[in-house]
């Protein structure tokens, strides 16, 4: 037996003394009171009875990385079923799947069967250490358990031996079952493609590649630079490493990608037949202008400044495309044209890498352009909300949500597509004001009403939107449109709109959608479509046709994470409250001198602008003279970079007099140069990056005589695909050098950034061509690691699942005794009351009556009262004979009557009657 609060027993001493002093009673009630005291204190101490027959836990860790066999899911599910069949009463089985990260696929359970793998896994890596730590967190500390690893042993990330030692300290053994691909007869792998970190323009340079071959073979070697083939031809490979010398010369600054591919017939591991290298050609920071008008006013004005200018149509951005860029200028660019990963990359470029961003206005920019709830919104010096006072007309909106089976699929962050869509609908509805109306239906093969057309003023049930999910077959487009038509036509609002959200690859049964849309258009109702998927998906054309016939807009969300942003964009576009399409005059604001000597008088009139609101702490250089007094040119530093917002349209329908303004070029140049910031001089510090296998080493060499930084510099490792960066502090290696190392967990390009003392230096990027688990090696190396893990804590190889639970020690189950003690204490309290009330009452009252009778018996013995008068002689009275005392009558029984009789007798004696 154990106690969770043993110090509670110390209360027995003070409580016992209190009971003895103030609650003492003779007889059984006192015994019951002592029992009650002991039981109450015992319950407070939290006693628990431990039983050694509560079963054991087994966590099965399943490696689902790319190096595993293609049928690993089937094999692992069979193994889990065998483990479940061995359960005894109290035994539990849980499943954890892992790749780049570990996820709990099935919690520990005594009953039920594992239904298969549903959690998405990034298969580019195999972080076995994280999976073992997840198993340690899954098994409660008070229970015994074992871990079964189903893997090929080709682990990446941190050393898994450390996690195994932590499990062994708790008595949890690690068993393994190796499942691996067959050993290939031939494997030719590009081990490395070593290119210089940086070169200058027109500087000849040499580089080399190393190709590892398991046997002699002839293959085709192809070298590409940014997609252009430089070398292609046969090569005779010898067993072991083969060195291939290469050279090149580059004419333009920027980031250059090299790709070396080896083609060998019969190669058993084609994943490692490619090598990738990135090289930075140094040059002045350039301006990247993304615009649909490459010869427009903005492009001409920036070209005339003499800055290095690169003009491109909007495309999906990446950190590779932004390397060497000092500032990005977005001229009336829709956020969807940059891609969700591109928006994340651009945000990291500004916030972490110290880049600049300038956004200009137009119908495709700011709020109406989809930047509301985007990664760029926090970076802008202006806020993009829609305020109620700017609304021109009330809106009625009917939202039709696809709730088919495909919406239940999970995205990388663990949420389902339906959850993201519900978040988007909620975000859109919160932008409506009290005068608006809204309804939401979820549709698969039939509509499911979440809530009918309701005034926003009465409150909308957002929680029902988040919970609603039917999970039926594919969405029936015609059925959905008819349900939306029936609902929206009930409204009399001046602006009525239907939003259809549907899977671009699973939109079925359009039915009579053309007639439904024609009827809606005749009633002045518009229809927009948000398609989940790509513009090339099978049903994308149908969704485009619905949007065209409904006179609305079409969006394709290739990344489900963009759904909340797109729903907000559509709501802002329908409300038409974030763009002012009337001319407005400008005035100079107090912060205009930040940009240099620019004119403050003779400012032009703009034909329209995006209505935004200045954020606290931001600077405003130009603002309107209308009732909005809205910022037209605002700027501020954010993170490591700087951003500027020019809400007027530079070249378009709403440009107004701005196009002919004489100071336009000077103003644009000043804004761009301010956003570019101050470059770090080369003599200040040297930052290097070097990849050794899958480990990136970043070094910072401070110049001689550089004072010690007040705080340790930090390095941020940014992924080229827009994933979140990882920040680590550097540590001293010698008196002038600081270093940090990162394990690269997957293929791609990686961009390290070093920050210290307000300075930011972008280190040369590095590339990892394929997942580290595809590096040349054999299954024997993986088996060696698994055996080492099992040897740490007494585990073993499990060729059979028999005895997995029988060999595990039983957990000690705990039974709380406090509830029983409380019940006994209540019983003791009731018993004490019953005994005192019904059984011990006569004795108690007799005891109380005894002092009264003793007092009355003593009264006759008191001396008679005499009054002495000295002047009078009183004759001696004749003494009377004492009366003969009669025997005392028997004492009546104690009780209420006897007490009354005693009181009456005392009264008679006092009055003499």
From TrEMBL:
Residues 396-570 form the VWFA domain. Coiled coil: none annotated. Residues 846-913 are annotated as: Disordered. It comes from the Bacteria. PROSITE patterns: VWFA (PS50234). Gene3D superfamilies: 3.40.50.880, von Willebrand factor, type A domain. It holds the Pfam family VWA_2. Residues 846-868 have a biased composition (Basic and acidic residues). This is von Willebrand factor type A domain-containing protein. The gene is yfbK3_2.
């Amino acid at each position: 037996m154990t106690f969770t609060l043993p110090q509670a027993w110390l209360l027995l001493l003070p409580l016992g003394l209190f009971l003895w002093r103030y609650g003492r009673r003779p007889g059984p009630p006192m015994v019951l009171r002592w029992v009650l005291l002991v039981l109450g204190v015992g319950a407070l101490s939290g006693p628990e009875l431990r039983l050694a027959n509560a079963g054991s836990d087994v966590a099965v860790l399943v490696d689902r990385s790319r190096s595993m066999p293609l049928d690993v899911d089937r094999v692992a599910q069979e193994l889990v079923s065998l483990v479940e069949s061995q359960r005894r009463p109290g035994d539990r089985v849980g499943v954890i799947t892992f790749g780049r990260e570990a996820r709990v696929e099935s919690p520990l359970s005594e009953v039920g069967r594992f239904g298969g793998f549903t959690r998405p896994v990034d298969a580019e890596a195999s972080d076995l250490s994280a999976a073992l730590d997840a198993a340690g967190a899954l098994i409660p500390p008070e229970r015994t358990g074992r871990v079964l690893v189903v893997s090929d042993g080709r682990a990446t990330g941190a050393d898994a031996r450390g996690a195994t030692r932590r499990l062994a300290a708790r008595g949890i053994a690690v068993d393994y079952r190796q499942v691996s691909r067959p050993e290939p007869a031939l494997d030719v792998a590009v081990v490395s493609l070593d290119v210089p970190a940086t070169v200058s323009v027109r500087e000849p340079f040499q580089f080399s590649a190393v190709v590892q071959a398991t046997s002699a073979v002839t293959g085709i070697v192809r070298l590409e630079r940014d997609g252009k083939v430089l070398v292609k031809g046969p090569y005779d490979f010898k067993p072991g490493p083969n060195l291939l010398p290469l050279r090149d010369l580059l004419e333009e600054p920027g980031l250059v990608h090299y790709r070396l591919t080896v083609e060998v017939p019969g190669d058993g591991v084609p994943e490692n037949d490619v090598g990738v290298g990135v090289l930075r050609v140094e040059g002045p920071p350039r301006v990247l202008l993304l615009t649909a008008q490459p010869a427009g006013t903005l492009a001409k004005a920036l070209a005339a400044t003499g800055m290095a200018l690169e003009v491109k149509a909007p495309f999906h951005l990446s950190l590779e495309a932004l390397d060497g860029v000092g500032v990005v200028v977005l001229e009336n660019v829709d956020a969807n044209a940059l891609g969700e990963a591109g928006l994340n990359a651009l945000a990291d470029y500004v916030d972490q890498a110290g880049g600049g961003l300038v956004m200009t206005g137009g119908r495709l920019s700011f709020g109406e352009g989809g930047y509301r709830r985007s990664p760029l919104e926090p970076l802008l010096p202006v806020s993009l909300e829609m305020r109620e006072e700017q609304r021109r007309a009330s809106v009625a909106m009917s939202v039709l949500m696809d709730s088919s089976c495909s919406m239940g699929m999970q995205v990388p962050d663990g949420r389902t597509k339906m959850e993201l869509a519900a978040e988007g609908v909620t975000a859109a509805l919160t932008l409506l004001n009290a005068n608006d109306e809204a309804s939401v239906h979820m549709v698969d093969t039939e509509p499911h009403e979440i809530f009918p057309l309701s005034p926003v003023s009465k409150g909308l049930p957002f929680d029902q939107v988040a919970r609603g999910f039917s999970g039926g077959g594919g969405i029936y487009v015609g059925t959905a449109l008819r349900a939306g038509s029936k609902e929206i036509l009930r409204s009399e609002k001046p602006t009525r709109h239907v939003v259809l959200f549907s899977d671009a690859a699973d939109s079925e049964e359009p039915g009579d959608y053309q007639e439904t849309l024609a009827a809606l258009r005749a009633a002045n109702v518009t229809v927009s479509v948000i398609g989940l998927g790509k513009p090339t998906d099978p049903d994308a054309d149908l969704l485009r046709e619905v949007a065209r016939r409904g006179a609305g807009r079409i969006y394709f969300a290739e990344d489900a994470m963009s759904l909340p942003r797109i729903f907000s964009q559509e709501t802002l576009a329908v409300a038409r409250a974030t763009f002012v399409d009337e001319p407005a005059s400008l005035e100079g604001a107090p912060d205009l001198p930040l940009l240099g000597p620019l004119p403050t008088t003779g400012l032009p009139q703009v034909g329209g602008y995006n209505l935004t609101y200045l954020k606290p702490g931001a600077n405003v250089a130009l603002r309107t003279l209308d009732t909005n007094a809205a910022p037209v040119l605002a700027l501020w530093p954010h993170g490591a970079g700087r951003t500027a917002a020019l809400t007027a349209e530079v070249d378009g329908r709403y440009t107004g007099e701005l196009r002919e303004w004489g100071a336009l070029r000077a103003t644009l140049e000043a804004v761009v140069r301010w956003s570019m910031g101050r470059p770090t001089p080369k003599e200040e510090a040297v930052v290097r990056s070097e990849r050794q296998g899958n480990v990136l080493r970043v070094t910072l060499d401070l110049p001689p005589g550089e004072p010690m930084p007040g705080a340790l510099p930090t390095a941020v490792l940014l992924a080229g695909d827009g994933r979140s960066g990882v920040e680590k502090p550097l540590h001293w290696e010698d008196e002038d050098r600081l270093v940090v190392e990162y394990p690269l967990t997957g293929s791609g390009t990686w961009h390290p950034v070093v920050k210290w003392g307000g300075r930011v230096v972008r280190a040369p990027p590095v590339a990892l061509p394929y997942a580290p688990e595809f590096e040349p090696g054999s299954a024997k190396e993986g088996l060696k690691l698994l055996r080492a893990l099992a040897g740490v804590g007494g585990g073993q190889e499990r060729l059979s699942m028999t005895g997995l639970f029988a060999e595990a020690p039983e957990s000690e189950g705990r039974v709380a005794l406090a509830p029983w003690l409380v019940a006994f204490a209540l019983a003791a309290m009731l018993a004490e009351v019953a005994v005192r009330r019904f059984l011990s009452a006569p004795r108690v009252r007799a005891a109380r009556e005894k002092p009264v009778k003793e007092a009355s018996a003593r009264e006759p013995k008191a001396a008679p009262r005499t009054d002495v008068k000295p002047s009078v002689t009183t004759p001696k009275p004749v003494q009377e004979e004492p009366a003969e005392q009669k025997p005392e009558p028997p004492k009546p029984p104690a009780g209420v009557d006897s007490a009354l009789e005693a009181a009456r007798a005392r009264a008679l004696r006092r009055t003499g009657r």
